Amino acid sequence: MSEENNLNRLELLSEHGCYNGVQRFYKHMSDEIGLPMRFALYLPPQAVAGQQVSLLTYLAGLTCTEETGTMKAGMQRLASELGLALLMPDTSPRHTGIEGEDHHWDFGVGAGFYLDATEHPWAGHWCMESYLIKELVPGVVAEFNLKADKLGITGHSMGGHGALTLALRNPGRFQSVSAFAPICAPSQCPWGHKAFTGYLGMDNKDAWAAHDATELMAKQSAAPYPGGILIDQGMADQFLAEQLYPDAFEAACSKVGQPLNLRRHEGYDHGYYFITTFVDDHLRHHASQLT
Fold first, then answer.
1. pLDDT tens, 144-191?
2. Could you list the active site residues?
3. pLDDT digits 0-9 by tens, 214-243
4. Distance from C-alpha of 110 to C-alpha of 68, rounded to nearest angstrom
5. What is the model's pTM?
6. Are residues 99 and 19 in contact, defined by beta-carbon separation less than 8 angstroms?
7. Please, which residues have CB within 8 angstroms of residue 108's CB and are 6 or more apart in sequence?
């Protein structure tokens, strides 16, 4: 294992048998964040038996932790059958000592937006993109002997934003991508305005565009994911009109010839009943591209 992929002071917090594999929760000291971070990892029975398997990273949404998707999304059953390891990181640094870090449910703690902040006082600890791309994902791959060239990424809401933007900002890192009700155009919505103003600066619109999935897709010269991107969106989602903008991302994909399966579902809202209904399709989408 290379030095740069070492997960410092990795501590196993708990382990649970799950569909013939193991669901584990870990804590480690993050070099990128400068603080302890927590994550959940599901190893399917194939990995427990010593086989190398692919890794799917699931990014949760606002107010969530590493436990949310792990306990609510119901991914482990089919992941066990398909031979997919599942990585579920926390959504932000915690206990940073920054004044006001937990004063807002949609900014600060639980709302890292999967980017590296450049504005005081958030710059330094709020480095979720570097944490995931440079430290956690490669560290987990090395530590648990997973397939480094077979990585997928998905997420919900803010985590869907993270999945799309990290996949587009880091070409070649992930081989498959999907999202549930993602924030597709944060530069255009209140959640995005609040996060980008605080983390990146009110007037730094170039930085905003660099973390906006619709803007990133529109600038592609060719389809970055020729195997297709899968997005599920509930049409009874209370945040659809004001916050999510899937139509804008769909238009950007059409412009550059990116295959997109944007499925719109009547009667489904923004919560985990929606996710559990369609999560098997996402796991199969990733397995088909990673195997």
1. 999 999 999 999 999 999 999 999 999 999 999 999 999 999 999 999
2. 157, 237, 270
3. 999 999 999 999 999 999 999 999 999 999
4. 11
5. 0.97
6. no
7. 92, 98, 100, 101, 102
